[in-house]
Input
Amino acid sequence: MCPATGSTFFTSPADAGSSISQLPILRIPWLPQIAFCAGWDYSDAPTQAGWQSPGRIHSLTPGLQPWGFLLHPPQTFRLVMTSPSLSGRRIAVTRASEQSGSLRTLLEERGAEVLELPLITVTEEIDKQTLADCMLELGSYDWLVFTSANGVRYFFGQFMKLFDDIRSLGLTRVACVGDATAEAVRAYYLKVECQPKRATAEDLADALIATGSLDHVKVLIITGNLNRDVIVHKLEEARAIVDRLQVYKTERTDLTGHPAAAEFRERGADAVLFTSSSAAESFAAQADALNLGRNAKVPIYGSIGSQTSESLRKAGLEPSFEAKSHGLRELVDGLQKALTKTKA
Output
């Protein structure tokens, strides 16, 4: 029974084995976060809507902000009010301001308050002569290697200015590090043919070498100004012919006098999330601008991957958790688990 209108929440009976598409839909626009239960508290997934049928438990997508729910027949349904999983948590994100949107959305979907600390800026930087040389030889490369989503973004920004068809890449195969990079590549309807399980430069080089002999194989690596040369060195040792094209630069942002830094000093945060080594290094370098006040909440630190964790430790900051795989959703999942343990 709806506490506001007196309306019932359930619809007519449906077969317990019905598919989701066959079950009736009830729209309740005034209630954004609920769970429906049949004699059972749906407490292990507070941001889901779910229902129970004999022998089966069903649920909708985690983090969904639903406007309507699929309901099972009226047995004895109890309404359970739930809170988003990060409700009341204050999370600082350290991505470049123009790139924090996806992470911010994932956090806000789970109820978090988000503070943006733009510790780095990422801008396009390409040597025109090197670009021209690489583009002239583009069809001769066997592998096109991306080490970040930024590389994908800026490379194809230039590519599309010169070519009007993605097929101009010819038979070049694509390799990349990390799920975010792979997703950016697939946005151009390209297949990622080599992606290591661990998102590190060393693992990518090993994965490429494992594809077969690289003797005289031509490889174009798309990088930024701070990328390590480990991939280049390992591939050259495997007798590959390697060219390197820098398409962007990453710089530290001076947060002295920045309102976000002042807010962080005053209030602190439950956690600070790091998605790159450059952000971790910038955070440590700007300790004075980010020094917490007496009453500020001391945060835990979260890392997206092993390289970022290593950079944090080198800066004297021990990560409380690391994403299981190199992705933003995995980072937020790790955050949720870490904060649950902290609360406990």
